[in-house]
Amino acid sequence: MRAALIGFTAALSLWAQDDFHVYRDPPRLFLTAQRQRLLEREKERDSLRWQYFDANSSVSDTTTPELGFSQALYYRITHQNAAGHKAVDWALSPAATDLRQLALVYDWCAPLLTKPEADRLAAKIQQSLVRPATTLPAQSARALAAIAIADRLPDAADSILREIITWWRAQPPAKREDLYALLELLHAVRDNTKVELRESASAYFTNLPLDYIAGFYPATFPGPQNDLRIPVFTGTGEPDPVIAIRARAAGLAMVALDTNAVNYQFVQGMLMSDRFALRDPLGAPYEFLWANPYQPGLAYQTLSKVFHDPVTGHVFARTSWDEDATWIGYFDGALQLFRNGGVQTVRRGTPIAPVRVGDAIVTVPADANAMKVRMEGQQLFIIGLAPNTEYAVEIDDQELDFLESDVGGTLVVNSFPDTDAGVRIRPHAVN
């Protein structure tokens, strides 16, 4: 109780100290002076990523995915008024209801807007801002909108941002499909205020790049114009290319958020392969906006083949980094096994025999009280247990130990002998 009170007090203090006043002049959203220069140089060099973006944007029509976003970005880089007018016409049309894109058009196309157009588009954005939002993508879009029109409602913008961030800090870790929206929120708030949102969840964001890398199935998916890595999902049917495109965009935006941290450099090493560069009308604008091929990356294949994050409860393990690897994933309460090119969702409670992955052993026991595992590694991951529960752990010829499972129900046992040994665990009843 005392720890919870201290945590609440610290969060309240952080909230009180935050200053969400928007300080920057337009453009405020993502196009910092440094990024603008990088993108303009990419155009001058006629880089592959510029060619992909140019090929899709120069011939865009009303059927183009995210027309407002792509044409507004094309205008900012080429200074071609025709592209900007396309974005503005879309934003002012009755069919344009995507608040995120409306904010980007207002911010990026400001030099083109007549006063009546600016007034109409700002009014349209304000009407959307007052609508309640309960999802991370919707709240992120509201934050972009508040920042874009901050000059028109400076006090209200500060209040809206404060409300959104207070909401976000009370949420569980972001779902993988919402990761791109979270990264847009982080960029927009950091670029325009004095607040770094990662500071309030440092452990989560330290592990996030490694979680991102580990949370893709081993096999890749051949898209119509480029290959795609498929992020983990709990649905049925074939992989959704749109989700895979947004997952890559999230990785690119993640690297742009922190160019110095080592874990983020592993993500860069994973992303910088032309085989996976997005070339289609939906993905090419994201690839161009966020990718920085001049930033060095680290070889992600040198990372451990077992990843465990106690903050989220995620466990991902693979026998290798090759596409034919056997892979186990435990995330968001779902247990999956990938082998022979297919994903199998394991019914809750179904045991999985111990699988050795590098120096670790992963298992879902049939009876945790009578486990017997050959100890040939340094860590044992027992998944599928009760979350946040203390267990008494007994290993043959060793002293009794007490360990607590994480939020996902995973218990990690370290330092075993290199022999056959029985491992028995049981919930520890605390009097």
Task: Give the SSE layout.
Layout: H1 2-17, H2 33-45, H3 48-57, H4 67-78, H5 81-92, H6 99-108, H7 115-129, H8 136-148, H9 154-169, H10 179-192, H11 202-214, E1 216-222, E2 227-231, H12 241-257, H13 262-271, H14 284-290, E3 306-309, E4 314-318, E5 327-331, E6 334-339, E7 342-346, E8 352-357, E9 360-364, E10 371-374, E11 379-382, E12 390-395, E13 401-404, E14 411-414, E15 420-427
Parallel strand pairs: 9-11
Antiparallel strand pairs: 1-2, 3-4, 4-5, 5-6, 6-7, 8-9, 10-15, 11-14, 12-13, 12-15
What does this entry look like structurally?
With 431 residues, the chain is α+β, with helices and mostly antiparallel strands. The chain folds into two domains: 18-290, Glycosyltransferase; 305-427, no CATH class. It is 41% helix and 18% strand. The protein is built from 14 helices and 15 strands. Strands 3-4-5-6-7 form a five-stranded antiparallel beta sheet, covered by helices on one side. Strands 8-9-11-14 form a four-stranded mixed beta sheet, with no helix packed on it. A four-stranded antiparallel beta sheet has the order 10-15-12-13, with no helix packed on it. Helix 6 (99-108) packs parallel to helix 8 and helix 12 packs across helix 13 (262-271). The radius of gyration is 24 Å and the shape is elongated. Mean pLDDT is 89; it is low at 1-15.
Task: Determine the number of helices (DSSP H or I, runs of at least 4 residues).
Answer: 14
Biggest sheet: strand arrangement: 3-4-5-6-7
Low-pLDDT segments, ≥5 res = 1-15
CATH architecture of the largest domain: Alpha/alpha barrel
Approximate strand percentage: 15-25%
Question: Would you list the SSEs in sequence order as H and E?
Answer: HHHHHHHHHHHEEHHHEEEEEEEEEEEEE
Helicity level, as a percent range?
Answer: 40-55%
Mean pLDDT, rounded to whole units?
89
| Secondary structural class | alpha+beta
Count of domains: 2
- CA gyration radius, whole angstroms: 24 Å
Described by the principal axes of the CA atoms, the overall outline is elongated
Q: What is the CATH class name of the largest domain?
A: Mainly Alpha
CATH fold category name of the largest domain: Glycosyltransferase
State the major sheet: 5 strands, antiparallel
State the CATH superfamily name of the largest domain: Chondroitin AC/alginate lyase
Distance between the termini: 17 Å
Assembly of the depicted chains: single chain
Number of strands: 15
